[in-house]
């Protein structure tokens, strides 16, 4: 069999862009995108993407060049996930909550040649371009008008009217017969995503057509997504390309319901109006849905895939009582989506609700598309004991891993070594082989030589009926070195504010002494990234500014 080798017929480059072409054939008359009063079919979406891709190519932007997008979950944002790479360019989605200075840094670092900008975000992007050094070629700006633009807002209208390029103008002028560019090599870069900023030092993650093809297939299989689901976009598309479900919805002919922003009332209305079947989002979205004061049980069940920080069991319990069927997964920008999930066992259905919620809070086992996942001692590289107690670093291996960090070989080699991606997340493996995250390595609190998992403390705090959000970080301590400091926001209507000592005693009754927070800080809302992750680096700064807890105050 040695003479049997790959050939042009069996080694075509893999790319998720082919899913859109197929969707236009199979699901052509079915709705693809719904937004306010606008509805497109899959044949229309394919044609619009071809037109935009041809217009991008006509601008003289070379193959492999970076094209950025700053937009919320609107139809143009969805279309650009296909149109930019169909033009042979590398798609760079930018977090819509970033300030002008940070956007300028990303545009300069990526050497972006063009940037598509939602009209509501024009000011911050134009300011960011003004901050670029004189020797840096600014990107071409293409404005995306929105059907919610108000007629009395003269500024966006004047900008859009005077500007040479607008999104809909490109759609009108583009060629619907454009021969889009299949990559010459499946390892060619397709996307550039900057990490979410929870560590305050974002890096540019580059993914290939191949890795995104694999993760899209894997994500659909892992979540058991059926044909033609109705998917509500509560997860920002700019966050790891919507965990690959941007391309995944094309693969299964689903309907994408777009919302400009997350609002619990609008989400519940959309779920019932459009008969939504699937949603994704960070655990904070679950909390907001669970704590919405006017929440009522859903008319029909909705599959909800959550990831990021482990969802507190109390939150899982509450959202499932409303009709959301919660699935828990783990991933990161560097792997393009969910690669570890809590694969559910039928026997667990007989367990009490609280135990089911606890099990669902675990990350689980590798998905089919991932080759291996393990928890290892970061120094020796050896697997930790499967006792659910011994902590180590989570490592991953598989086809959906990134090519590396843009212009940062040092960071790439630091996290991709010895055949593994070292995630920086601390976890354990239970006797049944299921993995559970305990913390980010930088978030582990070492108090008096004992390791404290902030996630475990947060889980207890979330079980308090007054708590809406909880985050725990280290505060300097004169005696212990550092001790847990809890930041809390309260549920709507909670009055009066519970005293700090009451929260400490609540934890003391449920946690080992050394894990109990010594400081409690109440906030109206915890600082978060646009993807719903709490910005712990901001909270660490606040805790540090509080100063070292004096020895006399230790408990």
TrEMBL record:
InterPro entries found in the cross-reference section: AMP-bd_C (IPR025110), AMP-bd_C_sf (IPR045851), AMP-binding_CS (IPR020845), AMP-dep_synth/lig_dom (IPR000873), ANL_N_sf (IPR042099)
A GO MF term: (E)-caffeate-CoA ligase activity
Pathway: Phytoalexin biosynthesis; 3,4',5-trihydroxystilbene biosynthesis; 3,4',5-trihydroxystilbene from trans-4-coumarate: step 1/2
Family matches, as CDD domains: ttLC_FACS_AEE21_like
Ranges of residues in domain AMP-dependent synthetase/ligase: 21-406
UniProt keyword Ligase present: yes
Residue stretches making up the AMP-binding enzyme C-terminal domain: 456-533
Superkingdom in the source lineage: Eukaryota
Pfam families: AMP-binding, AMP-binding_C
One BP term from GO: phenylpropanoid metabolic process
Keywords: Ligase, Phenylpropanoid metabolism
Family according to the record: Belongs to the ATP-dependent AMP-binding enzyme family.
NCBIfam families the UniProt entry points to: PRK08162.1
Name of this chain's protein: Acyl-activating enzyme 6
């Amino acid at each position: 069999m040695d003479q049997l080798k790959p050939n042009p017929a069996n080694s075509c480059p893999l790319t998720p862009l082919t899913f859109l072409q197929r969707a236009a054939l199979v699901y052509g008359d079915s709705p693809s995108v719904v937004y306010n009063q606008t509805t497109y079919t899959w044949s229309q979406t394919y044609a619009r993407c071809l037109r935009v891709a041809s217009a991008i190519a006509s601008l003289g932007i070379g193959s492999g060049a970076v094209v950025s997008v700053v937009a919320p979950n609107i139809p143009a944002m969805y279309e650009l996930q296909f149109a930019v790479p169909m033009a042979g360019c590398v798609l760079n989605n930018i977090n819509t909550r970033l300030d002008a200075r940070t956007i300028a840094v990303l545009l300069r670092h990526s050497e972006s040649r063009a940037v598509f900008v939602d009209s509501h975000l024009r000011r911050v992007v134009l300011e960011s371009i003004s901050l670029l050094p004189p020797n840096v070629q600014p990107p071409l700006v293409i404005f995306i008008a929105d059907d919610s633009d108000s007629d009395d807002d003269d500024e966006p209208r004047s900008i859009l009217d005077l500007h040479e390029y607008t999104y809909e103008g490109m759609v009108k002028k583009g060629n619907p017969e454009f021969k889009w560019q299949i990559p010459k090599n499946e390892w060619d870069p397709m996307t550039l995503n900057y990490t979410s900023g929870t560590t305050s030092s974002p890096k540019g993650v580059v993914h290939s057509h191949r890795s995104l093809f694999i993760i899209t297939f894997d994500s659909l299989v892992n979540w058991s997504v059926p044909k033609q689901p109705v998917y509500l976009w509560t997860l920002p598309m700019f966050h790891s390309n919507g965990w690959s479900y941007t391309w995944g919805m094309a693969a299964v002919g689903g309907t994408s319901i777009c919302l400009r922003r997350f609002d619990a009332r609008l989400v519940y209305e959309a779920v019932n109006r459009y008969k939504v079947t699937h949603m994704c989002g960070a655990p904070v979205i679950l909390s907001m849905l669970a704590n919405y004061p006017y929440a009522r049980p859903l008319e029909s069940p909705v599959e909800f895939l959550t990831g990021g920080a482990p969802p507190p069991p109390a939150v899982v319990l509450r959202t499932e009582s409303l009709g959301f069927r919660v699935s828990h997964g783990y991933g990161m920008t560097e792997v393009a989506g969910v690669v570890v999930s809590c694969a559910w066992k039928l026997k667990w259905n007989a367990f009490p609700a609280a135990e089911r919620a606890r099990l669902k809070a675990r990350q689980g086992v590798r998905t089919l598309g991932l080759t291996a996942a393990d928890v290892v001692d970061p120094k020796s590289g050896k697997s930790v004991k499967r006792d659910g107690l011994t902590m180590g670093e989570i490592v991953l291996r598989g086809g959906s891993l990134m090519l590396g960090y843009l212009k940062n070989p040092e960071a790439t080699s630091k996290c991709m070594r010895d055949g593994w991606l070292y995630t920086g997340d601390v976890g354990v493996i239970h006797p049944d082989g299921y993995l559970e995250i305990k913390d980010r390595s930088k978030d582990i609190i070492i108090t008096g030589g004992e390791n404290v998992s902030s996630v475990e403390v947060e889980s207890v705090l979330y079980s308090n009926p007054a708590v809406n959000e909880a985050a725990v970080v280290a505060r300097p301590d004169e005696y212990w070195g550092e001790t847990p400091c809890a930041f809390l926001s309260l549920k709507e209507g909670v009055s009066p504010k519970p005293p700090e000592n009451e929260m400490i005693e609540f934890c003391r009754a449920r946690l080992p002494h050394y894990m109990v927070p010594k400081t409690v800080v109440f906030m109206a809302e915890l600082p978060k990234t646009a993807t719903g992750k709490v910005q712990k680096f901001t909270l660490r700064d606040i805790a540090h500014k509080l100063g070292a807890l004096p020895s006399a105050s230790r408990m």
